[in-house]
Amino acid sequence: MTESESIAYDVVVLGAGPVGENVADRARAAGLATAVVESELVGGECSYWACMPSKALLRPVLARADARRLPGLSQSVQGPLDATAVLARRDSFTSHWKDDGQVQWLESTGAVLYRGHGRLAGPRQVTVDGPEGERHVLTARHAVAVCTGSRAAVPDLPGIDRVKPWTSRDATGAQAVPGRLVVVGGGVVGVEMATAWQALGSEVTVLVRGKGLLPRMEPFVGELVAEALAEAGANVRTGTSVESVTREGPTVVVTTDRGDRIEADEILFATGRAPRTDDIGLDTVGLEPGSWLTVDDSCRVTGSEWLYAVGDVNHRALLTHQGKYQARIAGAAIAARAAGVPLLESDRWGAHAATADHAAVPQVVFADPEAAAVGLSLAEAEQAGHRVRAVDFDLSSVAGASLYADGYRGRARMIVDLDEEILRGVTFVGPGVGELLHSATIAVAGEVPLNRLWHAVPAYPTVSEVWLRLLETYRG
């Protein structure tokens, strides 16, 4: 292996996914010399194995579901989806797993890209083992930002390696529809992939250890989604754990704790995420390899003056949009500290504080029906010690929803802080509700007083009129 002389940059970024790209962009915009290290594809998990391919798979599924609820159109969309066309469109959104366009954008910012595996080699030092056996040694004058993301966590079941189960990457990138698919896990990935592959023709069985789907949202969300999945033909089994999994020829055999034997062509484990920090040299700076990294609100690692952890690796909010938000915060903080500008640590709404990661994290689950939530659920708000009231409204009673689709089923809930008269959280479930979420995010993040929110008049007849109905219900 040939080793180069050490090259100095102001900032070195490990990981060129959306988070790393945004840290680099903000650093370069501030005039800081920046290097970015990537061992896979520039653009990261979101572009090739998560957000983009999964939503490309789901969009035809949800569009067909909406069309089937509209008389005059429903008879035209009764046939099966064209799986070949859906998968081809998915492939186009991943640029066929080629990153030329992403590389061009990154280099247009002025950042220098290093291909290869990057590791910390002590304070402010990074080594990069390149694809041709070369080794680059990089020094960071001001900051190293760890933006390496997370990976699927597969349970340690006997013989699971021989089974070769699907993870989220396999589920979003598969080139053929499995005849029978077992999905283990009832979180976002499990629900979305069950929705997609069932609609594309798989016989889907969902195994959930807990009481229901989407347990981090309000209970009624998981209930409605489970009901819809069952109506679509999926077999949803709650309170069920996998005890063993084997592969007999091409067939996967699953045994549950209830003694059930389930045969399938593929099995997807959607059972959580783990940080991609096991082989990046954390031990050289006194940190535990493979651990989540604890940070302050500027995303600087606790106890360090130069190391930042941005995105999934800090375990604050494992969502692409939140990671990009953190990246903007971290980039601004790195630039300010490099320029010797003091940060106002007490300014929770300043340019250097990731305030929204505490109170206003939005998320959409692209199931049928869609689920969207921001802020705290009722249980979370009560656990946090807030004096709150949950205000519910049946979305099917809103004129815009009944126009959206016949037989519209959905529900909305806002969590009102009775002492502050602001919203602590908002949840929607129903077709198309993802487009309602940003208004809720503004209300929660901005701590808009309810007496002021009353004057934000929703257009008629839109689904957004549910805001007026929720406020009327609260006022009584």
UniProtKB/TrEMBL annotation:
FAD binds at residues 55, 118, 148-150, 312. GO terms for biological process: 2-oxoglutarate metabolic process. One of its GO terms (molecular function) is flavin adenine dinucleotide binding. InterPro entries: Class-I_Pyr_Nuc-Dis_Oxidored, FAD/NAD-bd_sf, FAD/NAD-binding_dom, FAD/NAD-linked_Rdtase_dimer_sf, Pyr_nuc-diS_OxRdtase, Pyr_nucl-diS_OxRdtase_dimer. The keyword Cytoplasm does not apply. Keywords: FAD, Flavoprotein, NAD, Nucleotide-binding. Gene3D superfamilies: 3.30.390.30, FAD/NAD(P)-binding domain. Disulfide bonds join 46-51. The keyword Protein biosynthesis does not apply. Its cofactor is FAD. NAD(+) binds at residues 185-192, 272. It comes from the Bacteria. It holds the Pfam family Pyr_redox_2. Residues 361-467 form the Pyridine nucleotide-disulphide oxidoreductase dimerisation domain. Residues 9-321 form the FAD/NAD(P)-binding domain. Binds 1 FAD per subunit. Belongs to the class-I pyridine nucleotide-disulfide oxidoreductase family. This is NAD(P)/FAD-dependent oxidoreductase. It comes from Streptomyces sporangiiformans.
